[in-house]
Design goal:
Length: about 350
């Protein structure tokens, strides 16, 4: 979704205030912030049973804590491009880290599930701005001929997050407590803000354009109501509430699409879907994420609840899966160059 954010997607290279050359470590600084976000997102999967026991709630209801974070990201990512244009990419990135770290503190201090959900929503708001705004900073500050190198530098740490998160989370739970999964973000976030202010140039767009408030409200209502309806199926909500949320989502999402097609400055630029290659990638990527995005959470629960393994053992098994995916990312370019996209596509689906 962040690839299609309205103002930033259309004006990424236009009307920018000149900036100093990018420091060589700047991409690594941005990537390190995404590493922190990735570790936090996967570490919680192996800690859910311990968290449910400490918070005194049903384990099945803990999916609301996971869904609240993802819901907040889904709602606020479309607005991140405009925020980066309006307030400056570096400033927005630093505030995103600060909000993520502050919300992490309140996540660790939560004593019941509602407190955790509220803190996770705030954490998702910070996380929603980190990845798109960080990418925006790199693309604007780096010369076009150096895009590949910069992107490789800042995505390398980010790719390690989902791989290292599960075993690190399991180790923390067994040696200390689940609270430190969130507290550990605080020192890294403070260092990240200081390094960003020192090494990353402040890039601004003098004409960010108007904010599409109707589009944001329609899309936010549709996405949030739909996600909450799905999360409530586990029994955390009354059936009537689930039905009302589902109906609201079914009404507002088509309205959001209609608005995006006809608005002068839409929050999400649907005209990009006219590009066939982009449309195919978005469609296949969406289907792939629907099928596999929940596997880490489900597998962690199966290993601990069904098979009786501890958090660390479960995390190491998830690490093996993530390490395989990371290894494939490293060699994917060579394989595609050697055999071509069409030959690799079908075996990959198996």
């Amino acid at each position: 979704m962040e690839m299609m954010t309205g103002t930033a997607a259309r004006q990424a290279d236009a009307h920018l205030v000149p900036s100093p050359s990018l420091h060589p470590v700047a991409p690594l600084i941005v990537g390190s912030a995404l590493l922190m976000q990735g570790i936090d997102g996967t570490a919680i999967t192996v800690a859910l049973p311990a968290m449910a026991n400490a918070l005194g709630t049903n384990l099945l209801h803990m999916n609301l804590g996971v869904s609240a974070y993802l819901l907040s990201i889904a709602v606020f990512i479309p607005a991140s491009g405009w925020i980066g244009d309006r307030f400056g990419a570096r400033t927005s990135f630093c505030w995103a880290i600060a909000l993520f770290v502050l919300a992490s503190l309140f996540c660790g201090l939560a004593t019941n599930l509602p407190q955790l959900i509220i803190a996770r929503v705030a954490q998702g708001l910070g996380g929603a701005m980190m990845a798109p705004v960080g990418r925006l900073m790199m693309l604007r500050a780096v010369p076009r001929h150096d895009y590949v190198r910069a992107i490789s530098l800042y995505t390398a740490p980010a790719l390690l997050g989902p791989v290292l998160g599960a075993p690190l989370g399991g180790l923390i739970v067994e040696l200390s407590s689940w609270h430190w999964i969130f507290f550990i973000n605080i020192p890294f976030g403070v260092i990240g803000i200081a390094a960003t202010l020192h090494y990353v140039p402040d890039l601004r767009s003098p004409h960010p354009g108007p904010f599409d408030l109707p589009g944001f409200l329609l899309l936010g209502a549709g996405a949030s109501c739909g996600t909450l309806a799905l999360a409530g199926i586990s029994g955390a909500m009354d059936r009537l509430v689930i039905a009302m949320l589902a109906i609201t989502s079914l009404i507002t999402l088509p309205l959001a699409i209609h608005h995006a097609r006809h608005a002068k400055h839409p929050l999400i630029d649907l005209s990009l879907l006219k590009v066939r290659s982009f449309r195919v990638v978005m469609q296949s990527g969406t289907l792939w994420r629907i099928t596999v995005a929940g596997l880490p959470v489900l597998l962690a629960l199966l290993l601990q609840i069904g098979l009786g393994l501890g958090p660390l053992a479960s995390g190491l098994i998830l690490f093996a899966s993530g390490a395989g995916a990371l290894t494939m990312k490293v060699v994917a370019g060579t394989i595609l160059h050697r055999f071509g996209f069409r030959r690799v596509r079908w075996p990959r689906l198996l």
